[in-house]
Amino acid sequence: AGPEVTEPELAEPHLRAVLGTAGLAVEYVRAQDNTLFRLDEDGTEIPVVDFAGGYGSVLLGHNRPEIVERATELLASGTPVHAQFSRHPYANRLAAELNRIVHRELGTGEPYFAIFANTGAEAVEAAIKHAEMDRGMRLAALREELAEHTASARAAVAAGTATVTAQALGRAGLDAAAAGGDFEALAAELERHNAEQFARPPLFLSLEGGFHGKLAASVQLTHNEGYRAPFKALAAQARFVPRERPDALKEIYAEERRTVRDVRVVDGRVEVTEREFPAFCAFLVEPIQGEGGIHVLSPEFAAEIQRFCESVDCPVVVDEIQSGMGRTGALLSSSQVGLRGDYYTLAKTLGGGIAKTSVMLVREARYRKEFEIVHSSTFAKDSFSCHIALKVLELLEADGGAAYRRAAERGEALRRMLTSVAEDFPGVVKEVRGRGLMLGMEFHDQSGSASPALRDAAAGGLFGYVLAGHLLHRHNVRTFPTASALNTLRFEPSLLLTDAEIAQLEGGLRDVCAIMRDEAGERLANG
Ligand code: PMP
């Protein structure tokens, strides 16, 4: 062997160091099915059961043979991977197949147009941009209509067929005596008021605990302060709606609704009316919050959100990036709670654990074809990822949807185990949540533990990571806390999950629960 070359560490050395404090900075050298392999000191492979599942991108398993075979075929046959601005029949086929499944699950026939992208956050950004473009076009139409009404009222006043009443001036907020029935004073005041509304930035709604990505716009819809606050100045803001509190929607409506003032001539009088202004650009919802701690949206709250959005003409963006693609037993987990989106975002497993791809779907009634001319990416809609995604859908749909049923059944088996652990450690486990293969276990706060190691981990904001380090080193199990709720461990394995793998996780969880119950942090691998 030659002399050892030590490269300077430049690819996020700080992150590696942070992971290292919890023993999580390990290298995986191979991946197959539900297993990642790392090497021990002698270079022997140690299999690690993967419950993190790429945080939801490998529902079908790591390096799933059918997908690897398809990828190999595509590359060997010289598929034109990059051919931006040409006809993409494979993208169209993928959009059609997504529509077929979505129609079946939603019981609708309305077409959903597809905008392809590369990552989850990018699909969210596309949805945000599209929603704002649509709102902008609705604003322009409204503005034009208001201008037409002003012009015809002005003409009627000039022709002497209409007069400006004190009531109209009062409604516009003018002092009737001072304005003296002057139409131009009225028109100027309406224009001033309306211009103020039109100049306001769009308002987005998102749920507390919501996670929609970390790009400049999408991170403003991600609730976690640490991710969002440093970039506040970069993009439009969201209001965060408390989960499962329908009253909150009424309060937000009362505080955020805007109106513009319109003039009409009725029975020879100029009248001023208030009209609802499209202030709300989009409401982003995860059917099951992933990074926020595995919180399932209830059908009741889903219906409230739907009603609210209909009443203010605000599109619903259902972010299925983590929950979708079969993980909970359906392509759209929102279809299981009766939530209907104007937009859907899908990513992660859409690329089969191999390609990087995502898609934003928009229903026809909201679709603006102009978007296609102003939004693109060098890499999106490429033949390689479209064909891989088609293979993913084929695998999900095979045998009458056996994969969906398997995800639901394996999820139930995993959930039974988690529930039994929770029942045996009631003082340690707070709750088991989730659906299908998207499950979480929340632990009680350990900052009052008699064990310094547990107390420090809880205080240092790394609690779930310390548990994950122990599970990795002592039990060969990989899991992670959710990004914004560190007391919750997530379990998002592939649908190849075996009973033996569930038992292996159970051994690990019972061990960490006993350590917490016994306040014995010194028993932790990195304690
Ligand atoms: N939305 C949701 C619901 C997610 O879970 C994630 C990723 N965890 C994203 C968006 C962002 O996806 P990506 O990491 O591919 O940008």
Quick recap:
Keywords: Aminotransferase, Pyridoxal phosphate, Transferase. The protein has 16 helices and 20 strands.
Folded structure, characterized:
The protein is an alpha/beta fold and 527 residues long. 42% of the residues lie in helices and 19% in strands. It has 16 helices and 20 strands. A 7-stranded mixed beta sheet has the order 4-15-14-13-10-6-7, with helices on both faces. It has a 4-stranded mixed beta sheet with strand order 1-2-3-18. Helix 5 (120-158) runs antiparallel to helix 8 and helix 15 (463-475) crosses helix 16 (499-517). The longest helix is centred in the last third of the chain and has 42 residues, at 383-424. Residues 55, 119-121, 124, 211-213, 286, 290-291, 319, 321-322, 347 line the site of 4'-deoxy-4'-aminopyridoxal-5'-phosphate. It comes from Streptomyces roseiscleroticus.
Largest sheet: 7 strands, mixed
- Tell me the number of strands: 20
Number of helices: 16
Helix content: 40-55%
Rounded to the nearest angstrom, the distance between the terminal CA atoms is 36 Å
> Are any ligands bound, and if so which?
4'-deoxy-4'-aminopyridoxal-5'-phosphate
Shape: elongated
Low-pLDDT runs: none
> How much strand?
15-25%
Keywords: Aminotransferase, Pyridoxal phosphate, Transferase
Protein name: Aminotransferase class III-fold pyridoxal phosphate-dependent enzyme
GO molecular function: transaminase activity
InterPro entries: Aminotrans_3, Class-III_PLP-dep_AT, PyrdxlP-dep_Trfase, PyrdxlP-dep_Trfase_major, PyrdxlP-dep_Trfase_small
